[in-house]
Design a protein that fits this description.
The chain is built from 12 helices and 16 strands. The protein is α+β, with helices and mostly antiparallel strands.
Amino acid sequence: MSRSDAPGLFRSGRMVDVLSADGTVVSMDEAQAECLGLAPGEAIAAPWSRLYTQEARDRIAGAFAALSAVPRVLPLMLRTAQGALLPTTAVAELFQHPEAGLCLRLNKWPAGGDLDEVAALAEANEVLSGIVAASADAGWSMEWTDPIDLSAPEHEIVRQVFENGPRWRFCNNAMAQLYRTPPGEDFNNRPVAETFPRTPENEDFIRRLIRADFDMNGSPSRDLRYDGVFIDVENDVRGHIRGNRLLRMWGTVRDVSKHVRRETQLKDEIAFLQAVLAALPDPVLVADRRGMVIHVNMAAEALFEAPADLLCGSGLDELMEGIGSVDGLIADARVSLVSTARAPFLAEVRLPGGHVKVEGTAQTFDLPGGTMLAICLRHVPRVIERGGRPGAFTAGG
């Protein structure tokens, strides 16, 4: 029998039944019984699986599993006693029956009415919510009791974000896991301030969002987990703005605490190494493969009588005579990690008041940008010959 074999559905208007979580029909009104070809009371205590198709039963089971007091709009296909299919759109409400326990009241209307659009939107929302809920990325949505007035000064907008009744609209399970939500607690029901407190870092986070019109990727904030540990996170954020009012914002969040700790550690190590290099008593220059100086220490600044910003960018051959080619220095360096150049080289440093004789050693090292050359210099003392005349010096030998 086809759907057209049961025209009674379209004459009856609303139909109502109540289903129990244990799988039986608790009650059914006369309109539905008549439309299904059943005698009044005939379906009471019968399995409701006999009245609905498999797809409809899956939706009903999902409504029971949701345990939400919010009504849901569902497309449901019924089956008459003669096997005809009756398409309906239902508003489903969970409630506690005094005798049957958890029950679902289904108010149904013929499919094809205005309620169908609501059902389609509800189904789309359920699909999208399911995708977000199952995502491994921590997703969140925040809204306010009083929307944020974006026409106010920046400091006032910041205040409103934290004080206008912020609440979580939707956060997925990955969000709850990230913030170590206590067992048995629903992250969505917890106060926003517990994990997003008003701190200087989070005020700066909101200021960046304001200046980016609440459309930003990788924006840092500092949040508080439920175990009392602050974590550094990055947020991809979008805002829903209507007129001059921010209604809600949503996005994803990533824990970057370990990267921040590593960055801090590297900065400390770099600062330490720079301090050691700066304090070395011998002048040190670092040059690239072309022989351009990219770093010097304090002793080199004293030797060349020039600050680092002037020395960096100069060529080795501009600063010293007799040093030879960079290719020659690199080729002469040993492969061993503890080696220096095979033999010290001699050169003269050009200074406004004359030349200073130096002896140097060189070593190569590799960086992502290519091979670098580290050169360590030492003053060559003048040799006083008999008779008090300084000894002769030849650059490079």
